[in-house]
Amino acid sequence: MVAAPPAVAEKPGVGSAIGWSYVLTGGRIGSTVLVTFMLAKLLGPSEFGIVAMATVFITVAQTILQQGLVSAIVQRDKLTPEHLDAAFGVMVISGFVVGGAAAALSPVWALVNREPQLTVVCLALSPLVLMQALTIVPEAVLRRELQFKSVAVRTLSASVVSGVVGVVLAVLGAGVWALVAQSLVNAFVGLVVLWTVCPWRPSGSMRLGAIRDLWKFSMHSANAGLGSMLSSKSDIIFTGLFFGPVATGIYRLAARLPDMLVDVTVRSLQQVALPSLSRLQNDRAAFIRHLTTLQHLGALTGLPLLGVLVAAAGPLVEFLGPQWAGTEVPLALLCLYGALNAYGVLLGPALQAIGQPAKLAAILWTRGILGVVVFAGVGTLLHGSSAATQATAIALAAIAMQIVMNAASIWVTVSRTVGGSIPRFLAPTIPAVLAGGAAAAVPWLFSVLRVSIEPPLLAMFCYAAVAGVVAGALLWVTDRRLRMLVRKKLGGRLAWIPLSHPRAGRHAA
After folding, report:
1. Higher pLDDT, 428 or 60
2. Beta-carbon count within 10 A of 507 CB
3. Dihedral sign of CA atoms 124, 186, 315, 431 in order
4. What is the C-alpha separation between 285 and 418, in angstroms, rounded?
């Protein structure tokens, strides 16, 4: 019998958790997209680049804290209050130690990047490490119990309040400090709300036996987390090291928008994947069916939206202003990167859920080391090019790496570890691929028809609307699973919906 934290009463179902996970991430991303557009309009690539270079430094420290114990708490079959007390004690101590180290090493990071302003920006952001440490255990408790409604309250509140603070300071001329304040306020408000909505409280005791119980799994997961950080952040790290804040700012904005869409779609499922798949770790057939369903949902929601973003990329960059000229090409490329990433996001939780964090660590470290070599090579070759060209080259290198690593990761996870069929795993996502490609082609359609729309903001909305309609219609016609899902959710009200395309039905008959 699982010993759960006493204050958490009833676990919601996986379907409810997925719904609240989408609410959580969707609301956060919606507010963040609006804030990002406003800040990009008010600020420039240099300010975005400096904060991105500082944030990736702080992220290293946060990753050391976050990955291991969270996964151990969520995945562990038998969890006692002593485990949670021990984990919280370790997190508080580690937060002070690692946060202090990050502050002390800030001048070194600024020196390596040849950007003096990074010292004060990194120092200002160093409290994020301690605030992260204080959130890890209560958030893991909520996620383990699939209490995503509570997590949604915390995340949305923090996103809205910090966005308002960032925009107001940018309007007042605070420059880079508007982005710094946004990050700090987001973390602080999230911390306060999290402890308000989470019923668990530490008892103040730390038992070494409980720490040892979590240690083995958490060490593998922490190793995987560091590999994940290196593999996901090496593009920003080397763009900053070789090209400076302007190219980093262009690349970061171009990467952030697709990242947000992947967050609201596939990573929303990632939050549910580890606890829901962990319940099936002893039933491989049910495990692969559930993983395939989650991957289909991620592709269904993610790929068409990324295609819509590609369609709107040109007028969007024009709307942001001349300081962002040239960003549309890396933005379109990084939408493709995001589409590829949608096929890798759920594989990490799958390996953790089935008790194979060491395999995940090996995959992520391989990708991270490959990224170091590839991005360092790009940085050396294009050191004297324009900022937009440099950002485009980094995006192309990221796409090539993602193709190679996705192929390897799917083979290791689906075929070798779980024992599933790769074609059956990927086949349900084909309609989403077609829908995303059709949406991305909408600007070409407007060009062929010689339709010109002004101003840029109107053009952006028109392109996005047409692309959305095209993608939605194609999905509806080609995706039988989607029609089944809609019919199941709405019951008899949509009993007239055919489960198969009429021609396909006659052919099958």
Report:
1. 428
2. 9
3. positive
4. 8
